[in-house]
Specification:
Elements (H helix, E strand, L loop, with lengths): L21 E5 L4 E5 L3 H8 L8 E2 L10 E2 L7 E8 L2 E7 L10 E7 H6 L7 E2 L4 E2 L10 E6 L5 E6 L4 E5 H12 L26 E3 H6 L1 H14 L1 E5 L7 H9 L10 E5 L14 E4 L11 E8 L7 E5 H11 L1 H9 L1 E10 L2 E10 L1 E3 L5 E4 L18 H15 L5 E3 L6 E5 L3 E5 L9 E7 L1 H16 L1
Bound molecules: fe (ii) ion and zinc ion.
Zinc ion binds next to loops.
InterPro entries: AlphaKG_dependent_hydroxylases (IPR050411), GBBH-like_N (IPR010376), GBBH-like_N_sf (IPR038492), TauD-like_sf (IPR042098), TauD/TfdA-like (IPR003819)
Pathway: Amine and polyamine biosynthesis; carnitine biosynthesis
Pfam families: GBBH-like_N, TauD
Length: 465
Amino acid sequence: MCLHTDKDGTPDKVTDTLVTSSFSETGSSQSVMYTSTNSDVVQAAKAPCSEIPLHFSAHYKDYAYLPSWRKAPENKLISLVDQKDYLEVVYERSSSEGSSPSHQVCHYSYDWLRDICRCDECFNTVTHNKQTAISLHPQRPKSIGISEDGDFVEISWDGGHDSRYPKSVLLAEYLLAKDPRENDPVIDAQRQLWGSDLPESSFRKYEFDSLITDDHSLFDWLMDLRKTGLTVVKNAPRKLGQVTELCNRVAYPRIICWGPTFQVGVKENASHVAYSNLPLSMHTDSAFYMFPPGVQVLHCIKQASSGGQTHVADGFRAAEKIRQADPECFDLLTKTEWEYFDMGDDYIGPHHLQARHPVIRLDSRGRLRQIVYNDLNRGWRQDNATSTSPAAYKALRKYSEYLNAEDSMLKYTLKEGDIIVIDNFRVLHGRSKVDSASARLMEGAFMDWDEICSKLRSLGKALFS
Ligand SMILES: [Fe+2]
Ligand SMILES: [Zn+2]
């Protein structure tokens, strides 16, 4: 191992500007863009689905499963500096012709470096599991250095363990950590918000047959679903079973209390309001599950002679508008949990499902993660005094107003053979009254985001690496 801990010989440091990201709604298109001080990051995020530069860091076999949006630049390792709890790594940026090279200084905690060691002792590359307990990790290096070929950082730890890290992985992970939006190209895919002015022509349509037979189409469709939360699949055969076939192409349908699929027609004495001819107010489905299904798939097999128009609205857009207009109301919507329940006797026998959710669930960075809103299934038990307060109800009504506003709700008449696929963590749906003499028949199914994201990663690896 080549030791190099030269503190004095560190070249001129050009520490990167911290990349900041934030939501901002733009002009009439009402699509959301992230702003960033790092222009190539924005370019990568704007790339069309089929051109996503998915890169699986294959420089080092043990890291090969780690995805990233782009290749790490071919920067040269210059020096390492031991900075107490952190290792400082200095790279020389690859320079374009005529410009002088600059240096990039990155910091990695020793805890993290020890944690991600992918040697045979620490990591099983067959099962992709870590094999050492974190309690056994020493946190300080005995020595640090750069390999002779210049491609690896090498660390000998207290206690006698040796680790080596490809520079490409270190640099890629550093860049990704600075811009968490890119951390996972699937989970962190750029969300594009939309309102009622979304022209039907800008809906990307997908042919049922090509989704069943072509992996590129399948990838584009699922990535589009992740970004917009709303897609339409055209020309599915007009018979039962097609939603199952579509779900099976991804993984499988998520079974709920009504079974793996459900049929929505007009029934007399309907056991659920969805099976009646009544209009349905805007809602997310299955709010009474602690973990509601992630995506709804609804196939129009027979359209109503009149009525039964599908209504959809982008719940993330409504939430962002409230966040800007009334932060206190937004805060209440994220903190007040509402109870939802459903009782019946169906596929799993008698059921009594019950769960609590805030209308808006955020992730640890304050980004929107999930909307749960359903007037049809709201229960009566209080979470605490807040959930019955006038302010909480006012916030609930405000969210409803934003959803049902002219510029928010999109009305769409499904044609026979259409399958509408919506993100149930984001897009709310409803319908107008259905003609009661109608033979309208819809078949629906659910999927979960875990399986969809898994499929996107597997397809991305197969198609683009
Ligand atoms: Fe529904
Ligand atoms: Zn190891």
